[in-house]
Amino acid sequence: MKGRGSYALHEQGQGHGISIAALARAAFAASSAGAPIARLQSLLEEALAASGARRGCIFVHDRVTGVYGIVAHCGLREDTASGWKLTPPTVSDPSLFAPEQLLEHAFARSEQIVSAVAAPISARGATAGAICLFDRPVRGFDADDEDFVVALAGVAAGVVAELSERREIEAVAARYDEQLTAVNDLSTALVGGTDLATVLPAALQTLLETLGADGGLVFERTEAGGDATLVCAIGMPAAEAASLSKRGNDKRADSILRRTMSSGSAIFADDLTSSELPESSRKFAEQLGIRQVASLPLRDRGSVIGVLQIFNRFSRPFSPTERETLRLAQGQFAIALGRARLVDEICDQKNTLERVLAGTADGVYVVDSKGRFLLWNAAAARMTGVGPEEALASGYQAIGGADRQGRSLADLDRRAFDSAAGDSTNRQNSFSYEVFFDATSRWVSVSASPLRDHAGAIGAMVHAFRDVTAAREVEQMKSEFISTVSHELRTPLTSIKGATALLVDQIGNDSGTTGELLDMVRNNSERLLRLINDLLDATKLEAGKLAIRRRACEPKPLLERSAASMTGYAEEYGVTVRTEVAPGLAPIVADPDRVEQILSNLVSNAVKFSHRGDEVVVRARAEGDFLRVEVADTGVGIAEDDLPRLFERFTQLEHGRRTGPGTGLGLAITKGLVEAHGGSISVSSRLGEGSTFTFALPFAKRAEDK
């Protein structure tokens, strides 16, 4: 087969031509193992050896740059191979590799190439490259040589296609790497703090360098539907930036800034002169010398809180990689603005809270789980004589304070924390105790409440206290008066009770009026005597003079006996009492009579405010060095506001519009008895769901240590 565009295949030695063996060797080189460029190099060497050409090269199209570059060559200088680029005037221009065009190129002239033959390499329906042979020394190239390079181009097509695919994959990987690096650089710049004036310029400069853009602007929206404030500008004079910001907030102007904020959508204008934006926006941009812009809304919690704008003074389309980088940057800048705004809100709330706490008459302090003071307000400083700086720096060591049993404020606060932490129900707890401060000679009533996180763990304890010195002085006088009166009344009441008992014995089972009157006298005298005994107990507890006769006691029989003694009382209310005492509990050192009194008071209280058919449960278990006892009911519950004063004397609360009989001394006496044993008591309750009273008594070892 002869003629232009074809090549006659001959056995070696038969006329002018290239043997089938030469093409086979070229095909073998192309299909061998190895990198595509190495295989093209081998194919080119086989072509030169078979054709007799002195030099040659293979061009391959680079889809990223749009030019053809040399990937394999023989006989050319390295600077020629690296610098010889061909840019087609149109895509896949067939005349680009015409011999006359190649010979006219500056690099061909510098190499003194005098003859050439070339054939384009087609892949995927486009010109993917070309194979070129230069300078045969014996004779010039003819039609047979053209057919030969056409055949070689067909052989090389598969290798070139593979090379193009690899380059595309490498280009994609490079784009993603570039994008990842840019996002990481942005994140590094933006996490440097919450001061926008510090972090935004560095982040915006990083983004501009990544995109190769001329400048950028960051606006922050003051409020929903409000104006935007320019917070950062790079690549634009201050006067122009101010003018652009002013126009952007003009409600009469359909500016790019206002359109972005109102629509909440990104605006990309690769060429402002031909974009669909309003003519006024195009003219204004032209005045500033801007030809290309990307305007991106910055969102936080569903609202547009700012705008990021990137601009160029020349027109070019944003590549897919650049658009993806802008999208990621949009999120990063939105996070930065949102974080700064959140920090401002937190600071404002903190300042407001501090002003409120500073102005309140009650002392307030907050202690974290490690015993460090986080807050100490002015009222606390006034009541204790310890200033905020000293309290926050030195903590309990500087503050001091102790209750009537000599327990320090630090110990009382720690007990409150431990009791709250041991409450698995995570109900609202309140722990109350009174402390005396020597520096100011004041008594204060402390109410401690836990601050829990979403998981129920306690992060800190909030303590509120008020000065009760005057009230305690009045109560002291009242206690002395009550003690005196009680003593004076108890003697005649005891006589009346004894005399009544004798009269009842004398008249026997008289069911008439006399018997009824004697029963009435006996019952009321017993009731008055119990009241007087309660008053005396409360007075002695307050004065620290109540006798506590401690001895080693086994908790299980003591608690079960105490609960059993309340069965009859509970049946009157239609309530059952059940005990759950853990086995193997260590002995406690306590006054068994007083422990029974504690449990009787708590169980009777639970029974009174339970519904018919309810159950009161007494649970006991070991918790560290303490016996923890809970008395739980599912009755009417206690309002949260009433919890702090629950253990005060003469306090009777309305439990769901129900009040029970009593003097209001039972819980106050119970608290005093528990504390006299070196223990603590607390309550957790929710209105309508019931209450749980919890007291802790030290085991024998702990009690002996004390």
Characterize the overall form: elongated
Strand order, sheet with most strands = 12-11-15-14-13-21-22-20-19-17
Q: Sheet bearing the most strands, described?
A: 10 strands, mixed
Number of strands: 22
Helix content, binned percent: 40-55%
- Which percent range describes the beta-strand content? 15-25%
Which regions are unreliable across 5 or more consecutive residues at pLDDT < 50?
1-16, 702-706
Total of DSSP H or I helical runs spanning 4+ residues: 22
Question: Could you tell me the mean pLDDT?
Answer: 83
N- to C-terminal distance: 117 Å
Class per helix and strand makeup: alpha+beta
The rounded Rg comes to 47 Å
What can you tell me about this protein's structure?
It is elongated and about 155 Å long. The strands form 4 sheets. A 10-stranded mixed sheet has the order 12-11-15-14-13-21-22-20-19-17, sandwiched between helices. Strands 3-2-1-5-4 form a 5-stranded antiparallel sheet. Helix 7 (196-211) runs antiparallel to helix 11. The protein has 706 residues and is an alpha+beta fold.
